[in-house]
């Protein structure tokens, strides 16, 4: 109902891109786009998108709670703030720097569309909306793909690494609209994040690291767009 359907829609979008006469790396796709022509209505629409993402994560937590799994079990309590923050910074560095290089390599090889993290105009609320969107994405994805799905697969008797790989494939699937590079890059991210969670049972570092990565991508792109030649 949530990220699973997003994965299916992303596959359809990728197939549509492949059927076009233009190579993948000469096509583009935007992530955060205007939702309304009127400025304030666009802001409201962007905030509703963030609310939907927050609700998706909340549904996952509620379903876990219904079976007796509390926040501390999956690592969403506040008992290890410093360790969680340091872990988040480490994960962001491990994924962010190689991930950027991988994206440009995949794009250069024609395996990926040119991804535009944001096409929002320079409205006064743009940066705030992008930061909230980054946090919403991180919350929904990490709670559902790692905290919820891997936990449920373990309960169903799946082996540790089988559950890890399944969750990583799901993460990659809803990024297929970006191209093959988007799928592989996010699959690798899913393996790293999922492995970290299985070892530490701390979900906050994943949520924080994912937020950092998306904030850098969303806000950084808007600041550099049109000012540097190496951005597609």
CA(first)-CA(last) distance: 33 Å
As a whole number of angstroms, the C-alpha radius of gyration is 18 Å
Q: What does the overall shape look like?
A: globular
**Beta-strand residue percentage:** under 5%
Helix content class = 55-70%
Query: Helical region count?
Result: 8
Query: Strands of the largest sheet, in order across it?
Result: 1-2
What is the strand tally? 2
What does this structure look like?
Helices cover 70% and strands 4% of the residues. Helix 4 runs antiparallel to helix 7 (180-200), helix 5 packs antiparallel against helix 6 and helix 5 (126-155) packs antiparallel against helix 8 (204-224). The protein is mainly alpha-helical. The longest helix is centred in the middle third of the chain and has 30 residues, at 126-155.
Keywords, please?
232 residues, mainly alpha, two-stranded parallel ribbon
Task: List the topology elements.
Elements: H1 3-18, E1 28-32, H2 39-66, H3 71-74, H4 81-108, E2 114-118, H5 126-155, H6 160-173, H7 180-200, H8 204-224
Parallel strand pairs: 1-2
Helix pairs in contact: 1-6, 2-5, 4-7, 4-8, 5-6, 5-8, 6-7
Provide a compact summary of the structure.
The chain is mainly alpha-helical. It is 70% helix and 4% strand. This is CPBP family intramembrane metalloprotease.
